[in-house]
Design a protein that fits this description.
Blueprint: E1 13-17, E2 23-25, H1 28-34, E3 38-42, E4 48-52, H2 53-64, H3 71-83, E5 85-87, E6 94-96, H4 99-105, E7 110-115, E8 120-124, H5 125-133, H6 140-146
Antiparallel strand pairs: 1-7, 2-6, 3-4, 3-5, 4-8, 7-8
């Protein structure tokens, strides 16, 4: 926890390679914050999202609060929960990314493991580069202006 009582946030980016079995090193700083067991699932924009046990509980509570009679809500629940796997790091600090998650994220070899404040994201390195170089994407200033009503 930070001095103000706010939980630690995930920041930074780390480049790693997957091995032949689909294992990837989770950066030590992230491992410390995630704890012994955490969840990896499908994420937005085609990446994988890693949640600590506490964040996963918060996230799934929001999913469960959505109306079950809404088809979009049911789809989101299915997409996130069916792809989710519980992970623990091995002695070398690696986690196994199952084939279905590697296929979803287009991960073949090189990955970027990034901090996204309340969660960690795992991106195929080339996809991450395209995401950052997207000329049609809005600038930081445009995004902040669009979210100005949210207190950004």
């Amino acid at each position: 926890m930070l001095e103000s009582g706010v939980k630690e946030m995930y920041i930074g980016q780390y480049c790693h390679s997957t091995d032949a079995k689909g294992r990837v090193i989770m950066p030590s700083r992230f491992r410390e914050q995630l704890g012994e067991s955490f969840v990896v699932t499908k994420g937005y924009e085609g990446c994988l999202t890693v949640y600590s046990a506490a964040e996963w509980e918060t996230f799934t509570a929001r999913l469960l609060a959505m109306p079950d009679h809404n088809a979009d809500a049911r789809r989101l629940v299915r997409m996130f929960s069916s792809g989710a796997v519980s992970c623990e790091t091995d002695k070398q600090g690696r986690i196994l990314l199952p084939q279905h998650l590697r296929e979803y994220a287009g991960i073949e070899k090189e990955v970027m493991v990034i901090g996204a404040l309340s969660r960690v994201e795992i991106w195929d390195t080339e996809k991450w580069a395209r995401y950052n170089d997207d000329e049609d994407a809005m600038t930081l200033e445009e995004a902040a202006a669009r979210l100005s009503g949210a207190g950004i």
